[in-house]
Amino acid sequence: MSTKMDDQSILDELQKRSGVLEAKLTSPRRITILVAPLDYHAIVADLAKKGFEHVLALTSVDAGDGIDILLHLGRSTLITVKVKLPLQNPEIASVVDVLPGISIHEREVHDLMGVNFLNNPDLSRFMLSEDWPEGVFPLRKCFVPKVPEPIRRP
Amino acid sequence: MSGSVNSGYERLFDIPIGPQHPALKEPALITLKVEGEHVVGVGLDVSYNHRGIEKAAEYRTYVQNLYLIERICGICNVAHTLTFTQCVEGVQLKDAPERAKMLRVLVEELARIHSHLLWLGVAAHEIGFDTFFMYIWLDREVSLDLMEAFTGNRITSAYNIIGGVRRDLTPEITAKIRKGMDRLEERAKFYRKIVETEKTVISRTQSIGILPPEDAIRLSAVGPTLRASGIKIDARADDPYAAHASVPFNVITCDGCDSFSRILVRIDEIVESINIIRYCLEHLPSGPIINRLPRRVPAGEFISRVEAPRGELMHYLRSDGSDKPYRYKVKTPTISNLPSLVHMLSSKGRYVVNIADVPVILASIDPCFSCTARLEKNIGTYGKS
After folding, report:
1. CA nearest neighbour of B358 among B118, B4, B44, B1
2. Which residues constitute the domain of residue B62?
3. Buried-most residue among A40, A45, B130, B356 (CB within 10 A)?
4. C-alpha R_g of chain A
5. Dist. CA B36–CA B41, nearest whole Å
6. What is the mean pLDDT of residues A70-96?
7. Contacts of B378 in chain A (CB under 8 A)
8. Can you give the pTM of this predicted structure?
9. CA-to-CA distance for B165 and B103, rounded, in angstroms?
10. What is the ipTM of this complex?
């Protein structure tokens, strides 16, 4: 279904949807929508019903003033659902009930960026090793890795 | 875990496979919950070769990153550099020249052939058919020799660079590739015949690792795993990149939904890749092979999607105007296939998975844990232990 519709008609439909704060076509077949954290679950459930049920990826970005969660959906035209979360205790509703394929992606983001996905039944450690300290999230900008000294001949 | 298998056993046992195990080519921990011989549940831990590449990319310039990103995965390095260069070009709103795009397709398909042949060999080995494995890897040398002649290296080719490609095609190499393709086509057809008729292959793969189409869609499966469930989805066709929009090809599917169909899909994809390479050699446009682009990239974001040999590969770039990425995200095909793998490994109702089937099912998705697991972590706790 998603392949049949062209970018413009998808964009028009998304702009009309309540809860979508901003929708734009960033490049051919790439649409980005900005939604409020509270509307996130409803809008993703709606998109999944309309044929955007393929989870391409779940990206998290430490934007400095908060954490951006980007959910990329779709096989042909790609809809990116963008949510802005605060840096302190970032929390968002999990969409694992409507998109089962996202479970592993949510675990990854939970591990590396420290975002808590409410109602996700399994947020156990997935990416990091078992001896990694709790509460240290390597993809946050405040985590500065120690770079090993270059090895030089004595 | 569903206890719907009527094996007469009352207790569930946990059997760990890995992290080091003869059936695994890469470290991963698969915890099987078994009821007698039947696997009823599975836990996956793939965090044994996390190398922190996403974080490391933030500390390197775009040119340095090209070689870092290539090393995410040795086998699909061409797909990774292609996705990366498309991201960097996309943020700059520039494009590679037409000739470079066609050459990118050519080398991508050459890499797909060698990846599929490698996988086919591994699958034959998992089945216990080692003669087949040796034959296949002998023929894989043909594609690797072509890769070396064309790009200068057998595996990590560093062929795609920001703005274009590194080397042009010479008439001698063209002739070599044509000759190599003829041989590989003949061999691929021979392999298809073997797979279809050899009892060892059929009895070890048919009706094993069933993934029904509705589950494949629901669990966001990608690549040959998805296409072997009869779903005609391929990023090359649905979201064309490089020169794919102008190169005709068929999306290969198979309706069997089992490990056997995954073998057939991959063999047919080899033949399809051979045809794409021949088309590219015939229709190669003339012109330059590189657009020189500035080292600093303007602020912006871009998502690039490529059909890697294992399935859909996605890179996301957010730049801030400097010469280093602000955030680089990599989503590899194997991570998308893990939910499907867990689904295939769990017995449900009349669908029964035996412990002996586990290596075959695992191999059937063509897992690449060094891609999947460890794309991002810190680069800096060495020596801290």
Report:
1. B44
2. 51-94+293-331
3. A40
4. 18
5. 12
6. 92
7. 138, 143, 145-146
8. 0.91
9. 7
10. 0.91
